[in-house]
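We include the pair:
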Amino acid sequence: MNIKLKARCAMLRTGNREQKPTQSKTRVVIFLVGLGVLIFSFVSIGQELNQEGWPIPDLRGLAPYSIQVNQVDGVEKIVEKFFTPQGGHVARIRGNGKIFAYVVDQDREPPIDYLLVDPDGLGKFTQKFRSGDFYKIPEWVSH
């Protein structure tokens, strides 16, 4: 009994404290849940979903005034910008030749109005982001 008491005193002096396994597990679970909430909040800020798909801009008959080609995460990203008859502009974004997003700005002044993304390659642009929101090139683009 005297040995246990000495070991406990030594642990307290060095700052090492035993924790009950249930306390440790509870703290880990609370931390992970909190982290998940923060990550979900960060990713979904401003994003709107429409399972039917948002209407995409009609670019028929329009010629791009600018074309930019970049490599992003192993994907050849092509951004074609068009002036619209209503006085705005639209950017069509392709990755490896596949259209995955449209950027819409109705007044040609920063910031953009919104960005539409096809997250799964089905041709439905179901995600809508506001200016300044973070988005990633969908995985299906690189396959």
